[in-house]
Write a structure and sequence with these properties.
Strand 3, helix 4 and strand 4 form a beta-alpha-beta unit. Helix 2 packs parallel to helix 5 and helix 3 packs parallel to helix 4. A five-stranded parallel β-sheet has the order 2-1-3-4-5, with helices on both faces. It has about 150 residues and is of the alpha/beta class.
């Protein structure tokens, strides 16, 4: 049975390619999603992509994923550092999740160095640019396969 993964992106990630390329690279979110889709095909998994600038929409997609997904890749953007509600949503669905960041949040401003989401995820991958997503997808698929 094919594994299904929710790839969820939070606020301002729709501005990738325009927004602070020194931190986030020059690829657009659509280009990152295309690369991740190609990698998912190689791994034999289905990925579904969603992005929103609205916390409630992100929560809705996390909760809906409980009905169809085997795992979640989540770049909460700035909500990483502020959203107890997103933390609770990830925790409540009980799906394996990996937090993803393009930039190395540990090397950024002090307020970006603490994630409220990370403690309820299997792990976090950051600082690899768009490759953070492929590394996270590979890790999540291997974890799901090991659990079978």
């Amino acid at each position: 049975m094919t594994k299904s993964i929710l790839v969820l992106n939070g606020p301002n990630l729709n501005f990738l390619g325009k927004r602070e390329p020194e931190h986030y690279g020059s690829l657009t979110l659509e280009e990152i999603n295309q690369r991740l889709q190609e990698f998912a095909l190689q791994l034999g998994v289905e990925v579904r992509f969603y992005q929103s600038n609205h916390e409630g929409a992100l929560i809705d997609w996390i909760q809906a994923a409980a009905e169809w997904a085997d795992g979640i890749l989540f770049n909460p953007g700035g909500y990483s550092h502020t959203s107890v509600a997103l933390r609770d949503a990830i925790s409540s669905v009980r799906l394996p999740a990996i937090e993803v960041h393009l930039s190395n949040i540990a090397a950024r401003e002090e307020f970006r160095q603490r994630s409220l989401i990370a403690p309820v995820c299997l792990g976090s991958i950051s600082g690899l640019g768009w490759r953070s997503y492929t590394a996270a997808l590979m890790a999540l698929v291997e974890i799901l396969n090991d659990a079978e």
